[in-house]
Structures are given as C-alpha cells and as structure tokens.
Amino acid sequence: MFSRMNPTLRGFLIIAAIALVIIVLNLYVALASLFLIAQIAFFLAIAFFIYLLWRERREDIESWPTRAKFAFYGGALLIVVAIGAFILDRPAGLPALAFVLIVGISAFAMWRTWRDQHTYG
Fold it and tell me: Which of 14, 16, 50, 72 would you call most buried, defined as having the most Cβ atoms within 10 angstroms of its Cβ?
C-alpha cells in the first residue's frame, strides 16, 4: 500500500511522522542544536567555496590593478560578512531587504570587475 501511494502524500506522511516523533520524545533542544550545526556548516561551505575560487584564479587576480583587486576582494569580504551577520541575527523586514541588496550589489561589483579585467580591446 505504501509503495502505491502518491509520492507527494507519502512525503508529507514521512514529514508528519518525523514531526510527531520530535513532539512525542521532546527533542526540541536536539533539533535546535542540529539546526545550529547545519547553519555553521553551510556558512563554512560558502567560505570554503569562495576560497577555492580564489585559489584557482589568484595568479590572474594578482595581475589586476590595485583598484580592481580592492573592489573584487572587498565585494567577496562583504558577502561573507553579510552572510555571517544574517546567520547570527536572522533579520526580517527592511534589514532582510538590506541583506539582499548588500549581497546583490557586492556580487555585481565582483562580476563587473571580473568582466572589465577580462574584456580586451
């Protein structure tokens, strides 16, 4: 019967069973701890990904003018700090919009710097 069930319904039943186990066994603290560990791991994964991108292209970046390096590294640093602040503070409303704008503008600055340094002619 379970294998012939609609996959969406089956998924919701599994989620409901997990929620029921958490409520019955009073595992709120354990769930909150796992969520905090997952947030930290996600932040470290983003930082590691940025580090790998930098390490792969650092010789190319070192040949750029000082202003371009400053804009590129400043944008990357601002994104990492903004994500870290978002994880710690969990803003809502206008501060959350400010977070999205900071990350978007910083990413655009990095992309624009990268494109300007790789446009020849």
Answer: 72
